[in-house]
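TL;DR need structure tokens for one chain.
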Amino acid sequence: MSGVFVHPRGLCESTEVGDGTRVWAFAHVLPGAQVGRDCNICDGAFVEGGAVLGDNVTVKNGTLVFDGVVCEDDVFLGPNVLFTNDLRPRAAIKRGGAELLATVVRRGATLGAGTVVVCGVEVGEHAFAGAGSVVTRDVPAHAFVAGNPARHKGWVCACGQRLDAVLECPDCGNRYAEGDKGLVPA
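>> reply
TL;DR here they are.
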């Protein structure tokens, strides 16, 4: 693991960590986790074996990424984001592997502070879940969702700005059109 920084009080047990990744104090990356290049895993974060983080993923303080979660490149996980992987957890019943429901967070998506993601959903490319959201169903590409349960409130650009009524970004000028799984560049 050359090119990987692990704080003296951090713990990185995975051998599949890309160059330029930083694991900070009290963060724990378990064996079997796959972590891409240039990721930032902040204080107190936990990445379980079987979780997959693409390149340039930010995992802020206190975030829990469990087995079965896949975050593609350029995903931002705000402080205290929590993923689940079992819809029927019981202490006396141990489930693993195929019994767990996978969750996918597509490229460029953002999950705001305190977001809870119930397993088995897909968060689309460049989607944005506002702080404190509880994501219980799929989120289309470029959708802005918020609340408990998270509901569609509007659309966002790849740059993160809310889109206007004609699906154009007031900041960068990108334009979008509706596609099968949310918005696509026009």
